[in-house]
Design goal:
This is DUF2621 domain-containing protein. The protein is mainly alpha-helical.
Length: 143
Amino acid sequence: MSGSFSLFIVGWGIIMIVLLAIGGFFMFRKFLKRLPKEDGKSILDWEEHYLELTRHMWGEDEKQFLEELVSPVPELFRDIARQKIASKIGEVALNKKQKQITRDTIIEGYIIATPKRDHKFLIKTLKEKNIDLRPYQSLFEQA
């Protein structure tokens, strides 16, 4: 009885340490994104900045298309992914001096905002939407 209880306590301790390490990792990443860069703004500050500047440029169809693109992302991370992608789309639109967010801008921002390790998944999602990827090949190579 005593040996199995000790094993249970050790196992529970290991599980707790692993869970705390995972939580700490994600908290540390969020902390790093909040640190100001040379320009005085953090990564999250810039994301919020681009979202605010371009909020009026989104139509309902474009919002729905973005939702379709981020729907495969696990629900736990979907809000973070949506903010990151939408802010990159806004940045692209502002750099192109557009008055309205277009489908092409959404695809371009989606590709740029997605880490290279996830490009296979991204390509699969875009192909499921019957989107021709040839015009965007240079964006995949830049990433």
